[in-house]
Amino acid sequence: MELFNGVISIRVADLLEISLVAYLLYKLYLLMRGTIAVQIFFGILALYLFQVLVTAADMTMLSALGGSIGEVFVLAVIVLFQPEIRRLLLLLGQNPLIRRFVTSPAQEEMMNEVAAAVKEMSEDQIGALLVFARSTGLRSYIETGALLHANVTRDLLITIFYAQNPLHDGATIIQDRRIEAARCILPVSTSMKLSPHLGLRHRAAVGLTEQTDAFVVVVSEETGNISISENGELIQNVSVEELQRHMTEALTFQSAPPPEPEFAPAEA
């Protein structure tokens, strides 16, 4: 903002800055609402107002004490509001516009291969259960299946879930853009919120996402409908376009699972 002849001139950049600050404050308020962070914020605000008052009243000792507190004020805010700041940054990072610019070519190619395979399996009513590992390691589930360590391709995914293939039962787990294993056994959800008409594939998808942060895609063998599961929730009847959007949101900023030891071949 600039002052010309007593008139304030507002630039477009000023409006954008005000809008951005307002948006961030609003999101921060939503994250803090109903938490102890609100009380902490008001406590910090009270200390700041106290410092302003003692400085204005020229109270030397209290001003010095407030100054000492002010030196660690920024660090205290970061420590006290660390969960809220992390959630705010995560919320910003999940913005589809930002993700569009940071998705790696290899990740995008993998998701395109998955979407193409799911589309064909949906049209042909081939049942499928695809698991994408994120920050939680899935070694205990990978070890229940047949190890593959293969690149993710449309043809391979369709072949795995082809009804005559001995690997088609169970889940296929994808980690670090590679198919780690097929025919894996997943925990089945016992949630009463799920429809009694759901089959084992859907219940296994929800069961795994109740216990881990994995992202799971299900294709119904009976109807060909596509469903996704994340954080213990099931979204049914999604389109291929919606599937690609959900995959982008779920997998672009995924944290790499902790390194796990190589799988030793089973002894005869």
Tell me what the structure shows.
- 51% of the residues lie in helices and 16% in strands.
- The chain has 268 residues and is α+β, with helices and mostly antiparallel strands.
- The protein has two domains: 7-93, no CATH class; 104-251, YojJ-like (1 (3-Layer(aba) Sandwich), CATH 3.40.1700.10.
- The strands form two sheets. It has a seven-stranded mixed sheet with strand order 4-6-5-3-7-8-9, with helices on both faces. A two-stranded antiparallel sheet has the order 1-2.
- Strand 1 and strand 2 (7-9) form a beta hairpin.
- Helix 2 packs antiparallel against helix 3 (60-71) and helix 7 runs parallel beside helix 9 (154-161).
- The radius of gyration is 26 Å and the shape is elongated.
- The termini are far apart.
Brief summary of the model shown:
By secondary structure, the protein is an alpha+beta fold.
